[in-house]
Give the backbone structure.
Amino acid sequence: IAGITQAPTSQILAAGRRMTLRCTQDMRHNAMYWYRQDLGLGLRLIHYSNTAGTTGKGEVPDGYSVSRANTDDFPLTLASAVPSQTSVYFCASSEGHRDTDTQYFGPGTRLTVL
Amino acid sequence: GQSLEQPSEVTAVEGAIVQINCTYQTSGFYGLSWYQQHDGGAPTFLSYNALDGLEETGRFSSFLSRSDSYGYLLLQELQMKDSASYFCAVKPGGSYIPTFGRGTSLIVHP
């Protein structure tokens, strides 16, 4: 079934460790996004990519980095994790970045930083 | 910047009709979207309004008034499976990336 996969499903991480969350889509969508979701705060954009080879910063980019080497993959890296990065992380994609484009979300990664 | 306001929680009984409101402030505006998210699940797209008026998709309808910076999601013939969080999202001018509201938890009682 076409869609977006994320790995791992959940992770407990010690503060200070480096962690990469993986996201892969097989819909050949041009645009991809990373959001974090915290209770009561909704979905906040971390980073995005309009097309392979380009990335941009969202609302809460500090402490995170991304790369977009190809169309399908959009990994999110926490260089040195801190407890405030405990959250549920959702990857999403859209066909393009037109106003009518719908976002499709992956199943999420639940990350706990101790 | 952008800001969206929606109620944090709404409760209703099975078979009823419920309306979830969303007001927004944004510099420029492309459209208003609605997403549904069940506990522990991924958000899924419900509807998108770019123009004023009502869009109907089965039991769900979405309304937009650009002049009032206001929209709502209307759910009819409520079912237990409609218990979920509902997010409105705006696409501000100059960016096609949506900004999400904090979500409304809908609880449907038997």
About this structure: Chain B touches chain A through 22 residues (CB under 8 Å). The mean pLDDT of chain B is 92.
